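Quick one:
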Amino acid sequence: MGKANSGKRRFGSIRQYRSGRWTASYVDPTGLRRYAPETFATKTDAEVWLSQVEADLTRGDWTDPDAGAVNFEDYALSWIKERGLAPTSEELYRRLLRLHILPTYGRMDLDEITSAAVRAWRAERLEATGATTVAKSYRLLKAILETATDDELIRRNPCRIKGAGKEEAEERPIATVAQVDAVAEAMGPRWRLMVYLAAYGSLRPEEQAELRRSDVPLPDEPEETKRRRDVPREPVLLRITRASPELTTGQRVTGDPKSRAGKRVVVLPGFLSVDVRRHLDWFAAKEPEGLLFIGERGAPFRRSTFGRKWRKARAKVGLPENFRFYDLRHTGNTLVTQSGGTLKDVMVRAGQSSEKAALIYQHSPLERQKEVAAGLDARVRATRQAAADGGPSGAEVVRLA
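Output:
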């Protein structure tokens, strides 16, 4: 083995091998002797290494050298399982892991992932896929490794690229009132109300999938006026208490809405009263707790089937290919602000949460939501009337096509 260094050391010990190289060791806080991971060319190099270890122990920065020897894939999958995520979020995280993170890091231990490796991985991903997907993947990787840091498995999070997790999404397109009418008409009578609830009620698709008759308490109206569109009506209230997102497997997972603010009462503008009543009479399930939106055979609508109908309708009315069904929410929220609604009004209406302290003290009660719906009602009516006075509306263009 060789001889130990002369003189008693204050911390650790150094020995020289017959080869002439040096090794160093110390006793850790648990009483276990730890050896340097490599040998040193000189005694000075061994002493420097011991001094660094001693300094880490003094500052409280010392970590178990074996702690990071944990497989990244095993740790990441456990991390997801322990989070208690919503099904859609868990599905997204697992997809990002499978497609963008594990191919690079799946076989590595946590302590083998370096900052240089993260930079190289991100650069490679940016060449292979979209910047938004890379930003989501980077945020997930950083979150997992941040927990590993908190668990003292690694000393420092190697994800330190400034701004790498920020998404620079392009501005989403907005439809006109005439385009909303046209695409609703093109979707056909069974699905037109879904278009209107997305645009003028700010409902998410998964919220619409779980709407039931009992969630639509309609005000009483004289029979002779129920089907007339040329008279002002009371706003319609929708109670949003549940959501039923559909996973890529086709499974629907019913539960609470996307956020705490998702449980809400949405006040629809009065002009939708006729559409709501007709849909309830003609297309909704007949049971008191029956679903509002079902297919021709009485089953809940499927995302794939509805998506095909949406793409055909979008093409028929000339909406751009990047206009998603979800962009109807963006359209409606924009119309709300143009109708005098505040940011808080939009947040309440759309079921969005925010941690900004300034918004906690702003309120948008039910009466204010009725005022917002009335403003939206007046704006859409005026736009439709202007279109009618100047020529056929967007819906009429579709009907004549």
